[in-house]
């Protein structure tokens, strides 16, 4: 085996493009100096990269103009500071030594990066420690001090991360089976475990970036979470992880905010602006000592620097946004996450696959932003990436390659490729280094090197080979050196703690990791809560509208209620409703509280604030909002009904209504905080509402309550509130008697002295009834208890709030999803069972598909036989504009022309925001707003009426019913989208290499196999004309992406016409496409045509029109984005849109389209296969939807058990409350109220139903409605039908208990 190999000779920096150069400003992996700057040159002194060959990015890369402004501002600030320091220095007889010469105002030696580093870390120079060698990174103020190091894993044999495997079954039967109890006991004693990681060691120092590579399921996310000290979700973490001399336990307890884990999804409050998001992070991590800067000045300067460094100045006032709220772009959102992380001033950051969904140029900018942050702040950065390009790879110092949970390599990034070449593997043609490193760990993708026969093959062999290699020994030596120098040094740990505590607020406490005191945290979170509410005023407005609507309804029903005895009961009912509605309306907050848990949990782990602070701030901010709403509600209800018109009585009514509203808000929020599952919380909230409503004292008076449950009235705040407002209303009421007895024939001359009113509380000789006496005799209420009751309600409110704060602090997680693939009970999946042993323990599912040994293409494609196609889809001069309120219409697509021919795989590419998905939606007839112009034809003739039914559309989001199996999803699609005469064959319905996972639940599959399922669902409909795909490789690793694209290539080779958007394709992936349509921002065409062999046709076009030469080692997909100026910070010297319009290629494209039209019009038009909106009759749709919902319900035990519990407990509760009611007037009334109260269960039942129904509706709106699978009425009918049997079964138990307990006579 040869040992001499040149290190990565084929990796160089990209050549300059246009006005912006993409090269690094320091020596690269090619080991030669770059003689230019990435932006116009400025005084700058490069800092050596600690013997690393990683590319460096200038701090002004994203916004050079903004950095010039910051440079000018900081220079002026420094000049003022030095001017102020000179008198002090003269008075002390010395000179100031706190200033570095690099910070000299106006001097040639001004170091902008060092200045920013000083400012972002801290603004104070006074607080320094004598133990310089162990200073905390955030407090480093002397150039030669030794910052905190991060040692990842110290002992390779001892370090192990284990996860608890759940039971791999689906339906409700295991939950109801009594034998499952014994199985649960057995499992708790001997839990099935799976080792995710084993035998890792390495060091990441400040200023270094580590890239973690591996196939899905290899353990990349687990490694990052373990490094970030997030261990709660794992059964056990064995081995040692050192953070300088700080133990993981101490780090978690005292310095948790110094190490952060950033998930692949950017989770932020969508209605907050970019500026507000960064300001809040800076506010919660502002140090105590800031020299002459106030807290506000510190935050403002910090936000300005971060938004400028990361090119976000233009988006400071823009909402961050999410899938439902329009906000910044995907690339900008990634930079917001980086800026937020830097605003917290953490020392170590772990980024998990954060480039998912970004195009190559935006992903490169993301990594460059991390490089700037790492260099500027001297941080330790760990990043896991899928489909990492060569230009991304060059920015990393080290790389860790993981093979099925074992460490295949850990060391310098520039030596990794040579290491595996020496091992006996070689890269494919144009294969990037990251792709090669991942391919080596995939038996179906790696290429053996000629002349080598003893290569390691298994994960254990790779790990053993590395430990025995020179690279492994060097890594071990570095670990041992680190341990001897930094680990276990008490003086370093003490100095670190002392340095860290110097930044904490004075009264923040020494036993927690939070930098601010509790009042400061509450103030910061309250400010953010107000900003969130202001960003979504519609929700608050709808809440106010609901109260106004209910007040008007009740006020008109009981308009100007007479002061008569016949209205006594109705008057009490109105007062009872006013309390009950405030409680029921508060239940609607439960879903929103669950939606923000993920954000609060992330902030808690970043040590921004206590979780209970979020709950407390929400409660405090809600007080004035509730006050306004209750004032409007009370005024409308009180005066429309005509209650006692006394200022004292009105304000008492309002006071108790307002206080009860706040108390019940705390109650329901505490319920939401106490449970991990939303369905369980809804069930408990429903039962509690029933108990509160029954034992208020209105539906069943206290004297009629059974003794066993009468105690509930004493712990019911409703009872005290109802007594207060009822006695407050009736104490001055003199109800005119409407029925005096005796009266009638024979009693005409009876005087009033001999008559009495037939109402409780009547006195002989009086034609009215005293309201106070009525309430005392009927309900046992007294007005003298009113202020005692108010105090009790306050006590309940305080108690509920305390419970809310406790639950919010200690129960921050939600019910998680399974970590392994779930198969249908009793299914025969021999191969799949074997595959799942190596599944994705982090994200669920198998690791890799069955692939061809040579290049990773799917092995089983024989079942996929697309119908023969000869029809060509064309579009000409397509434009699309959308209206913008208050502005002119925005044009998203501009005069785009092209075609997709059968048997050809056409790529639709461009940077983020270029309009790729927009064009795909326009062509697929899936846009519902805006104006579309231009022509779209099939064979030069009008589109068939059922064009959407004859095409398939694979969306970027894999939206499926999570409980359905793969086979069921494919059959469902085939049955509803194919005509009845073309019945799908069950055995032939599995395609896309999904045979082994036919009976697996889609929700438990990993991302690759969910993507395969999404494609298969569309192919099951047998699209006749065209298949659209929107970023099918997004989020996949390089091998999975290759498997998907190879599968598409096979479909195209069999005659399928395919138009596909794609992000971050490698060079070999790019070669699978025949043609490409390239767009730039504004939806403008840059190129359309054949790619040619090795993309030579496309490259030749750009080079002929003034682009730089494409080097032989470059990825053509990245090259073309580079030359057209793709990315948020790049520009191009040429107008490539104008060049295309004037090019002969554009003319040739128009000629081709005209020729296609001419030839197509000579033959018959494409027939309309479906003459109705849907392929199947309405009853067939209902049947299939009912079957799918029945399976989903049966496999969701949490929902069904919550429904059972709610009905059974409610039935028992109501039944025993009205136990054996007598056949008296009061007993008959109690029976009627029992029936009424049992109907209240419909409110929590409806709230429970909202969760699965909204999930199903989302699937319908996102994927199934645009595909015309079934009608909306069929979905609603099936939803109602599936609820009927379950509600009958569960409601029967309620009614049975009610009948047995209430109506069986004594």
From TrEMBL:
Bilayer-crossing regions: 537-561, 573-595, 615-638, 650-668, 680-700, 790-808, 1199-1219, 1231-1254
Chain residue ranges for the region called Disordered: 1-62, 75-108, 830-863
Keywords of this entry: ATP-binding, Membrane, Nucleotide-binding, Transmembrane, Transmembrane helix, Transport
InterPro entries: AAA+_ATPase, ABC2_TM, ABC_transporter-like_ATP-bd, ABC_transporter-like_CS, ABCG_dom, ABCG_PDR_1, ABCG_PDR_2, P-loop_NTPase
Compartments in which it is found: Membrane
Name this polypeptide is given: ABC transporter domain-containing protein
CDD domains: ABCG_PDR_domain1, ABCG_PDR_domain2
